[in-house]
Protein: HAUS augmin like complex subunit 4
Amino acid sequence: MASGDFCSPGEGMEILQQVCSRQLPPCNLSEEDLLQNPHFSKLLLSLSQHVDESGLSLSLAKEQAQAWKEVRLHKTTWLRSEILQRVIQELLVDYYVKIQDTDLTSEDKKFHETLEQQLLVTQLTQLLGPSQERVMPPLLGLEKADLLELMPPSEDFVWMRARLPLEVEEQLKKKCFTLLCYHDPNSDSDHETLKAAKVWKLAEILVSEKQQCQDAKSQQKEQVVLLEKKSATYSQVLLRCLALLHRLLQEHRLKTQSELDRINAQYLEFKCSAMILKLRMEELKILSDTYTAEKVEVHRLIRDRLEGAIRLQEQDMEKSRQVLNTYEVLGEEFDKLVKEYTQLKQTTENRRWALQEFNKACR
Structure:
């Protein structure tokens, strides 16, 4: 650690790797954060002496560990009694299943009936609870002494109690063998002695596998923390690269934009020329497919005849223009004569038509 409350860049990274990664809960801090907040590194070192990896104080973590130890002891005790009760209930269930299919001996029937009677009385007694702590009236008006009268005879109870461990042991052995076959299916075909030996070591194997799983989870947690740190570092590097690229673009874009525009314009010019040539080629191709040599010859003859007719019309038009020019020279008197001639001609036509109609009528 450097003198005073500050840390050097190298020490800042060392604090980040040791304190933040091992002694404190996962936190995304970079060396730049420590350099921008010099007093924060000393605070981290101080906190690392008073808290554990989960963030609890050392005294509270110790109390929590002791509490968990007591919880595990109580849990173990409860599990033992719960397992024993469930095994006894399964014995009774198996008894009712067997009695439907096979004929059991009188001793088996006596054992299971005594066991069931004892179990029911015990459960009912527990439901009633201690009489001195009871506030409400007893259930159905029953007292504990009433239930004790239903207990099986003492000699039957002693006989049943002597046989019960053997039955429970046999039931537990079946369950252990079932668990062994589930864990190792290949052991299903083994001899009972070999199965018993494997069951004896099964607890150690399960503890070892559980420890392996916990170690794998711890490694996974460390990998996740490392991945988060690398992701944060890579993100900062990428942001710096993007800023550098942005600056380079701003500096060099104006210099290269004119050249790029010239190249794009030249490219568009060449592309336009190529498109025009392609259109002209398509046009010529259509013309060559449409007009064959015979059609062109016929069109040439038609054009020659049309041109000859046009020349004749032009000659007639020239003659008519000359006649009109001659008439225009005569002036207004000629126009009057033309109008008088037109009227006389129209009158003559009208009379000729009237004469024709008169001749038709005389006939």
In short: The two ends are 152 Å apart (CA to CA). Residues 1-7 have pLDDT under 50 and may be disordered. The chain is about 85% helix and 0% strand.
